[in-house]
Structures are given as structure tokens and as C-alpha cells.
Amino acid sequence: MNMRKFGCLTAALLLSGCAVQPQNSSAPAPRAVVVTAAAELQQLPPFNSNLFEAYVGVTTEDELFALTAEQQADFLDDFHTKFAHLPVNERIAEYLHSITFGFNYKEQTYTASEALTRSAGNCMALAIVTQSLARLVEVDLRFQRVNNAPVYDRSANVVMVSDHVRARLYKPGETTSWVTVDYFPARESRNGDLVNQQEFLALYYRNRAAELMLDGEQSAAFAYAKEALRYQPLDSDALNIIALLHRRAGDETTAEAIYAFVLTRDNTNLNVLYNYLELAKKQQRPTLIAQLQEQINQLPDYNPYTWIALAERAYAEDDLATAIRMYEKAASYAPYLHEVYWGQARLYLELGRPLTAKRILREGLAEARRSATKKSFKAGWYSFEDPVIQKKPH
């Protein structure tokens, strides 16, 4: 099978995560499951909508996938001429390859038209473009979850978690022959379950909610998170965003009720557990803090920022050996994060080991070349060369 890979990381929010619950899109749900979901929906705590202004600018599904007349013409011209010798599904893949060469990665979930106009966007935007083109020429497309380690990034006090999906473009009339469109393929990954259209749309609206929340547009974020629930009514991560928005708006009671509800049906969701724990700490509730911390301790924590925070705390307490171990732990989960290398280099400088510090930074630069943080890390690397390295006075 001829498979051309591009790559996509769909962005989401901490503590939200953009993992989707795989579901067979063609098989009808058993009646018992439907009844259970309806019963759970009745137990969902009411939202305090009065905290947020009415927002009418939510992108519709049609708007999400719409292309301008010029964009359609450009694609169809190449589809019927330049790539006419290829099977129709491969034509889409080749067209995407041609237009995304030099595509400017930007952490923004644009609509299909916006992404093509700007030649920019994140991988979710590219996935949306792929579906728009497939719809235009009636090629069957399905998204597949990829089981590899999520990617983490931090903005202010919010950690962004990125999961991985890729697209399959099928030959007409066939279900066993497809081209894989993979935006940023990982070196080690395993095929996961297919993601149906409802899940994909919920993921888009959840992504936009996270982005808007980070931009301080709380009312718009609330509207997008609620739209995600229209497609996945019990989505833990969309509910997590809504709880975060309530907490930021000052309604800790509703936030806690939502956290507690989610944990009754998804008690291993680290995103919700961490947010609930932060709320309990703010309210100085030792019994709840101990309970939530115990739940967290029972689960594997792949979030590198947990270990980075422990490293920073150890450094503040002048426990440099522990700080180095914590940074090393973070690097084992997320070797693409420049923070883990800068943190270690700083410590080795203070220990009077500048050569080790330089070696660590070289390792970080090698990883940065394979990551979206390349430019920011490289700028820091060059600035490191300028100052005179001095040992920490004893």
C-alpha cells in the first residue's frame, strides 16, 4: 500500500488533554448504554451561565469545512490535471504535500479556509483542511487515533496537552486500501481506534475553547466548550474546561460540582484530579487534598511539568541532586521540552561543571531540531555562548 505521511498533533488544554474515547461510528449504540448516558446527563450539575456573556460567534460545522471558490478551483485544477494519473485518494495526499511544504506551523485551530488563506495553522487545522478537500471530491476519510506519548507545552499556569491523530483517505468502494496523511509522524507509534465524526467535531470545539480561554476570552471559551458537549455530551475534558472557566469566574462551588461529577465516571482523569487538587489547596481543605493526592499517587504521571515543578521546588530548597533527578525524569517523558535542558544546565553550572552543562544543552538542541520549539531553544543556545561561565562561589 502506498502510504505518504505528513503529520498532525491536535492541541488541547490542561489540564484537559485531547484524548478522544474511541467509538465505532457505524455500529448503533446498545440501548442500555443510551439509557445510562441519559441518566448520567440528568445528574450533570447545572452550569452558572450568568457568569458569561452571550456569545453568538461559534463557528458552525458548515463554516468549519467551507472553502472559498478560489480555493476549490485551485484544488480541483490540480486534482484533474497535475495529479490525474493517481488514484483519487492519493491525489488529495499529493496536493496536501504540495501546499503544506513550507506551511507555517502556528498554534491556532483555524477553519479550513483560514488555514489555506494564511498558509498557517496547527495540525488540527490541517486535519480540517484534509476533510474539506475529501468532501469536495467525495473521497471517504476517517481519522485514526495514534497511540504514542502525548506532547506537552506550558503557557503561563496552564499546561497544554497534545494528542495525535492522522487521516486515512480511502480508495472509492474499498475499505482495506487507503493513504495515510500523518502530520508530524512520531518515531514510535501504534495504530489506535478510528475516531468518528462526532468525536472529531467535539475535539475541534474543545480545542477552540482551550485556545480562547488562554486568550482570556472566557465567554467565547464557555460557548465553544458547550458546543463540544453537543457532540459528546459527557466529554470529561470539555467539562474540565467548563469547570476551569467557572473557577476563574469566581464560582468555585459549580467548579467543584463539575469536577466531582466527572470523577464519578472517570476517576483516573489526571487532568481533572490536578485541577480539583489545586482548588482544594486554594480552599485549604486538608482531608480533600489528601484524598485527591492519594488518587493521583496511584496513577502513572506522564506530565513532564509535574517533574519540572518538583525540580524547581528542590532547586529553591538548594537540593541540587534531587532537582537534577527530577529534570531527568521530565526529560524521559518529554525530551522535546527545552526547560528540562536549561534547568539541568543551570544546575551543573552552579555545581562548577560547565562542560556537562554544555553537553546537556547540545542534547537539548538535537531534540529541538525535531520539535516545534526549535527556534526559541536555538536562540537561547546561542545566548548561552556569550557570557563567561563562572563557578558558584562556596
How would you characterize this protein structure?
- Keywords: Signal.
- Residues 1-22 form the signal peptide.
- This protein is of the alpha+beta class.
- It folds into two domains: 9-26 and 34-214, C8orf32 fold, CATH 3.10.620; 304-385, Tetratricopeptide repeat domain (Serine Threonine Protein Phosphatase 5, Tetratricopeptide repeat, Alpha Horseshoe).
- Helices cover 55% and strands 11% of the residues.
- It contains 17 helices and seven strands.
- It has helices at residues 31-43, 61-65, 69-80, 88-100, 112-118, 123-136, 197-214, 218-231, 236-248, 252-265, 270-282, 286-297, 304-316, 320-333, 338-350, 354-368, 374-385, and strands at 9-11, 104-105, 120-121, 141-155, 158-170, 178-181, 190-195.
- The strands form two sheets. Strands 1, 4, 5, 6 and 7 form a five-stranded antiparallel sheet that branches.
- A hairpin with a 7-residue loop joins strand 5 and strand 6 (178-181).
Summarize the structure.
With 394 residues, the protein is an alpha+beta fold. The protein has two domains: 9-26 and 34-214, Roll (C8orf32 fold), CATH 3.10.620; 304-385, Serine Threonine Protein Phosphatase 5, Tetratricopeptide repeat (Alpha Horseshoe).
